[in-house]
Amino acid sequence: MLCRSLNHNLRRIHSATTTADRIRRTPRRHALQLLSIRGISTRKTAGRDGAVEKLSTSSDHSSTPSPAASAQDAFRQLMRQLSYPVTILTVQLHNGDQHGATLSSLSSIALEPKPMVSLSLRHPSRLATYLLRQPHVPFTVYLLNHHPQSIQLATLFSQPRSQIPHAAFASLQRSSFASLHCQVIKSFNLSDLHPHFNSTSNLDSCCEHNLTGSSTLFIAQVLQSTPLTANTLQQQPLMYHNRSYTTIKPQD
């Protein structure tokens, strides 16, 4: 009789324990189902202490790039197949210090009625801000030749917010085959341009606000062109092609 009573009590304890375990597990399964519905999946990874469940979020948005981004990428890939002259623009600030930046956007746009070039600077840019504030201050563009020292200078002047030593400015003439003395005559904030742009729109972009992430196009008059070597026509210019420095071999 005593054994029967003991076995009966053990079966009741085991049944209660099993029921309690089911009750405790039910909210967890329900929670995991909710996580799965909301875009959160569970993943088991084996660790030093055994199997551990980790949560990894999955976005409901498609990873397909937007048409604008696709157009920009396609344009960028095509433009990399073209070669661009590497130049360094320098300007003397009011406090006597010099500031400069590497350009690959310099382009000759007119000879008449006056020689003109265009260049663009991306914001934030101390140089662009200064040219917008002081458009009548002249600046110099150095046309670099193909030489290891010129490549070092182009790399140095392309680093944002870097302190460029005075010796680097002094060596620009030795690393260039010519220089252009220029002055800004017009500037355009490219963020203001759109497909419906017309000649009556306001082109002046001398305000500094809301320029971060945009670019400013400068139109400058060439006041003086100065050869810096005796055989300028035989020099190999420093070019930028497909994210690397190169040159163009002169014709015999």
TrEMBL record:
InterPro entries: Flavin_Rdtase-like_dom (IPR002563), NADH-dep_flavin_reductase (IPR050268), Split_barrel_FMN-bd (IPR012349)
KW Transmembrane helix (keyword) present: no
TM helices/strands, residue ranges: none
Positions of region (Disordered): 45-71
Keyword Oxidoreductase: yes
Flavin reductase like domain boundaries: 79-247
UniProt cross-references to SUPFAM superfamilies, sorted A to Z: FMN-binding split barrel (SSF50475)
UniProt superkingdom: Eukaryota
Gene3D superfamilies with a match to the protein in the record: Electron Transport, Fmn-binding Protein, Chain A (2.30.110.10)
Keywords on record: Oxidoreductase
GO molecular function annotations of the record: FMN binding; riboflavin reductase (NADPH) activity
Extent of Low complexity compositional bias: 56-71
Listed PANTHER family: FLAVIN REDUCTASE (PTHR30466), FMN REDUCTASE (NADH) RUTF (PTHR30466:SF1)
Stated name of the protein: Flavin reductase like domain-containing protein
